[in-house]
Amino acid sequence: MTQTDMQQQMRAYLEAKLPEYLDLLRQMVAINSFTANAAGVDELGRLTAVAFEALGFTATFVKSANPNFGHHLVLRRPGQSARQIGLVSHLDTVFPPDEEIRHNFAWREAGARIYGPGTVDIKGGTVIIYMMLDALRAIAPAIYDDVTWTILLDASEETNGTDFGQLCIDELADALACLIFEGGYLENGRAKVVVARKGMAVYHLETEGKASHAGSAHEQGANAIVQMADLIQRVAGMTDYGRGLTFNVGTVSGGTVTNRVPHHATAGVEMRAFSPEVYDSGLASMLELNDLPPIASADGAYPCRISVEVTRRTQPWPRNEGTDRLFAIWQEAGEELGIRVEREERGGLSDGNYFWHLIPSLDGLGASGGNSHCSEQSADGSKEQEYCSPAAFVPKTLLNLTAVLKMLG
């Protein structure tokens, strides 16, 4: 069978079964799998395990490092050769159950779109994995049986994927590639795949001052909020768009009542950067704030204290040889199919941030759509809910399949 014949047969197979695939997506979207809803995450995991059981996969549920989260899911199908390919998705979404109800956010077909929680991030991606393997098993069973397929689904990607990242490393140490099925654009003959992602660091800022009566002893107080305000301005000023470095002051709290000089304030900051060098320099600049000359009480008797602590580090996924090699394969596959495949460098994290340096990885291979993490809608169209484009499921799957076949030679 020629490559063209195989592509034509796979396209016909996928198009004929698309209603069945979309029904699987509908079942997944109907399950609330908010990260903190462990029962919902596990319910989705069981549904996913049953679906892939029909393709010959065996399921293993792995406890999350956080006992409040659901179980990671590992689906394995051993092949006849040592060649292994990893496929990564996640089970959780960012939408609490009450938010879905409040915004009437559920499966909704409207025109060329399907709206619903997880349609593009990332339940649609899980369905594309299923479509790929189902079509390969039906049209090229010898190739399907030769390869060891390992599918890993994170229970808490939207919160912290550190322990899942290690699970991927353990399972895929010798894999040819790890393919990640976060949403990715495909429309009008153009597709984008993700070749780099920003890293993230989270900081806890704390200032300690001295309380005093705001009327009768104002000069004796060291105002922790004023100290925090100065700190916040310095942090915001470190954003450098030219270097791809951003700082976001996301939370602030402090003080109790207005007739008291506040003695305590806190803030939460997130930093992002593409370049490892820029990322490290941002870390250093933040920690240097611990040595900032403090603001003191008006009488000079009490200086405020400053504390800047790193609470989370997720390294960047920069452009690299392994990812670029996979991108070239996807680009070649796109040329055969009449699709122009372009690089995308994305600011958000994915599970790939944890293992790209050990396993050749490519991202953005999932459903095409938009408005991920959005549940609101408005009559004037200024707010729209998350959606996927069902017309893109078959061409996206065929692009991935063609590239995988090229990768396998």
In short:
By secondary structure, the protein is α+β, with helices and mostly antiparallel strands.
Largest sheet: 6 strands, mixed
- Quote the beta fraction: 15-25%
Instruction: Tally the beta strands.
Output: 19
What value does the Rg take, in angstroms? 25 Å
> How many domains is the backbone divided into?
2
Q: Using the alpha-carbon principal axes, give the shape.
A: elongated
Overall pLDDT metric: 97
Order of helices and strands: HHEEEHEEHHEHEEEEEHEEEHEHEEEEH
CATH fold annotation of the largest domain: Aminopeptidase
Report the CATH C-level class of the largest domain. Alpha Beta
**Which stretches of 5+ consecutive residues score pLDDT under 50?**
none
What is the count of helical runs?
10
- Please estimate the helix content: 25-40%
User: Within the largest sheet, what's the order of strands?
Assistant: 1-2-6-3-7-17
Report the CATH superfamily of the largest domain. Answer: Zn peptidases
Distance between the termini: 14 Å
Summary keywords:
10 helices; six-stranded mixed β-sheet; 2 domains; alpha+beta; 409 residues; four-stranded antiparallel β-sheet; Alpha-Beta Plaits
